[in-house]
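In the laboratory, one determines a bound structure by crystallizing the protein with its ligand and collecting diffraction data. In a computational setting the workflow is compressed into a single prediction: the sequence and the ligand go in, and a structural description comes out. We illustrate the idea with zinc ion.
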Amino acid sequence: MRINYPKTVENFLFYLSPYASGHGVELDLAYHREFVVCPATDIEMNGYFISGRRPKLCVAMKKPVSDWLHVLVHESCHMDQWLEGSPLWRDLMVAPWGKSALELFCGAFRGGKNDTNESIPLSEEDIEDLFGRIVAAERDCEERAVEKIKAYDLPIDPSEYIRRANAYLWYHAMIPVLGGFYPTGKEPYRIKEVWAHCPDHFDNDYAVVPKILERAYRTYCV
Ligand SMILES: [Zn+2]
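The predicted complex, in structure-token form:
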């Protein structure tokens, strides 16, 4: 049996459920899971949205609301990008390789757990292009998420959300340095010692990681 959430959270779920199913998206609110496995990557995650033949929005909810709500909001904004036919979302799937930009980007740096495409030769230009696609889509998603948090009056402080989102956005520039994504459980947006170093606006150069933030990633996200 699922527990009761704050009223605005219930309202958000009440909107999201028919909205997703009305657009052919399976909404999986995994009340009994601490993590969910994304079918596209086979990696344990806090939540995901996948498009394709069987679109699915999924979030692991066996944790406090403050630990899953922002994930659901974020992933639901990827769903919105997809539903609107946003080129930012479309560009996350990269022809001619038929793989996601993130998979290709991570795969270019050995040791990452997304490292599945060792044989694909990528030029410096390709790598820069992939980075640009990922950060553009994720930043747009985060900006949408902030609007959604405000629109539904969700119990998330928008200013703190932006700082946490920045810790996530900037991390992408650490992937070449650290060899891949942070381990599940060491998400930079969960660790205050990391996100506290981030500003509460999106007007940043995400290719250049501030030194103090880089030190925090190296200390807490490995
Ligand atoms: Zn995202």
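Residues 44 and 190 are 16 Å apart (CA to CA). Keep in mind that any predicted model is a hypothesis to be tested, not a measurement.
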